[in-house]
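User: Second chain of the day. Same drill as before.
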Amino acid sequence: MSEKIILNSKEIIENVILRELKTIIYSSDTATAPYIKFILIANAIEFIGACGDTFPFKENGHSETRFNDALTKYFKSTYKQFAKSSSAFYLYENFRCSMVHAFRPSVKIDLVERKSMIKHLSIDEDNEKLYLVLEDFYDDLEKAAKKIIDSVNKGSISNKQKVESPFLYVDDQKSGSTESNLVQVVSN
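Assistant: Same format as last time:
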């Protein structure tokens, strides 16, 4: 018999971003797919921002604010410069939108892995490029996700009811994960 588990946004962060996405990023089984992992990070950043605002998840018109809020409120301070539309390396436009809508970053962004030995968020002034290092980017996302969880646990987040409300149904699941299971969106 199928068991239905309801996950809230906090549990999505814990199970999908902190467990499943980490497995995808660091798994040797998926070592051949670094490019697609960046798209997952872009989506996760926006989700973190959505968890921190007061608008309903499905309300349109908040992508830019949510993405930038995640970078400025939950990521380390070095990201703030890239969360401004005046930045030559504006991550919302040059990374998030380009990856999600055009399936490639803008010419101003280079996506690399740690093995490249390039420093994350370093800028090549000569070629006008910002480098995003996959594993470092995920590690910073993980820290941001943990900040959201901490603020929910402490009750210091202004929209605690939103992040603790049902968000996703997972069928036939014992671990609370979406792995190998059917999911259904909760109308939220």
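The radius of gyration is 17 Å.

User: Great, on to the next one.
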